[in-house]
Please model this.
Amino acid sequence: MSKGAGFRIFLTVFALIVFLTSLVIAFLGNAPTSLSNTGNSTTSLVDGLFTQPVEGLDKKYPSDIGPADWVFVVIWPLVYVWNLIGIVYLVVSLFLAQNKSPILGEPVMIPIGSLICWSLLWGLSFSWLFIYDRELIILGLFFIVGAAWSGYGFLAFSYRCYRKDVFYLESHSSTMLWIVRILIHNGMAIVTTWLTCAWKVNLATVMAYKESRGVDVVPAPLNGNLTVEDAGTIALSLLLIEFVVWFILENFAFESYCRYTVSIYPTLIFVFTGIFVGNPQGAEFNTQYWSQNRIVALCGLILAVIAFVARTALVVIRHRKRVTLAPSAIFHMFILFRFLASFIDIVVDEMGRAYTAVKIALTIFGFLVFVTCGAFNFLANVPAGVGRENTTYNAAQDVFISDTEERSRNYPNQISPASWAFIIIWPLIFFWNGIGSFYLLVSLCLRRDRSPILRTPPLVPIASLILWSITWAGLIGWVFSHDREYYGLSMACIIVSALSGYACLAFSYRSYVQDKYMLEEDDARMLWLVRILFHNGFAILITWLTCAWKLEFVKVIAYVWDSAENKAVLRSESFTIEDSGTVALSILLFEIIAWFILENFVFEPYCRYTLTIYPVFIYALTAIYARNLYPPRDEEPSKRLEIIALVGAILTAVLFVVRVVLVVVRHRSKPRHA
Model:
């Protein structure tokens, strides 16, 4: 018997006892005592064990993100039956030959850490039943979060313990390996996913209600001005963020560890379906029916289905190809981009080597397009008089036919930033990029090895120069189409402008990263000028454009022009401007989180010193929050969007701090790969 086997046997038996205790207590707390108790009926079979039925707690602390009753009837039996089979298998395996036991064999598949986490999960779960029954809702939140994290710990310890020997196990113990994957890992993933969803409901209750233990008030008094619906929206938004982040991490960071754990997404689909169906607001198709949390749940359901299909496809492909290093798999997503980038690089670099004049001409042309864009933006927004906030009576009346104030009245938008945001951000964008563009122009007159454009390899290649011009030209197109209220066209222009900006930076990063250590030694000044003036300046612009196209998106999906009434009207009464703003901000938050992960763990060597992205996001979200907190006259604020913007600003601020810390650490250690 291997070292420590006695302790493992003890922990396995103890884990079985804790699990059976949790099963019995959960049954006693939820089984009906008569046929009259239907649905999610919870009158306890043992008087005194529980002080009140769950049905009474649901009435006292109502939530519009609680799943339908049938969800509980299905999920808990599934959770307990699946995990019961799993723990019985682990106990039985103690009597098998050592090489056939995932606990006693070598390599160990269920280590001591996993066994401890198993007991913690089920112990905290049944403790939560007692705590919530006594209405200690804040304490209950800590217990259910602890249970969920214990599940994460169980899986993490197990994955880490056997991954390095997976090929040996597939050759010599494939039956045991697949039993552990199916019974243990997927069973634990179901309960962990369910607990992850369950604590969001508990969180919404804690945010919305005062702890009213011993107070016979139904429903319990609210905890401040935050409504039950808004608390549910925050909780569901947090769940969506976790879901998206996990999808990225699972498939492109930890894929080789958890490839065959696929029960997470069916559980999420089941939960989101239960929330959508169980949302208590009206059963008829009306404005009440499509509540904000019903919409969020539907979006989550659609995303979960798409993620499950994508996850299944990736697992099948990687199983066939036996991909062993998941981090490199992310580059499969960018094969097309890399092919096109390489092709364009070959073409334009050959042209550049043969004709230096092409680079010079493109630099001058880019500067002229930039100046033209600045002039048109100034003419479109400069006031003809004094006293107009964010005034738009332009200085060239025949060039532009409307003003911003008039467009804002025609198309009210609750995610538009406060007026002061535009007054600050656009001068900053043009001033910073003006200095950067002027530096590139002046560098043409320097020695070839001192010019970021003319040197070999260039820091700003021809492709970046072309895309620089397209970005500013797209912005010119947006100014005119926005002025004419062609919002579909203006959204297309601003998206093209933003995408061109991304590609411009991508080509520049790609061009110099292989020689950056030589540059840091031979010409650090030029390298830092490009990083500060060009990369960070352009990042401010494209980050602002990333936020700005969400405004156009809201106008496109929310409004349609009514020629008879000569005004813009909502496309649908059931999908309000607040709902469209929620969708737009959710997309923005998703982009922020996705970029944070990609920037710090995939593309970090390329864009380490581009730091202006997060301050711009914080600035934009703060301005949206301020606009809804102190709305202009004749405009209705949105409490929901105010909360989302505030949460987004805080989240982005945290990400920015983490980003700065990572940059400082990596700058000192100089790692070549993140």
Observations:
- Residues 174-208 form the longest helix (35 residues).
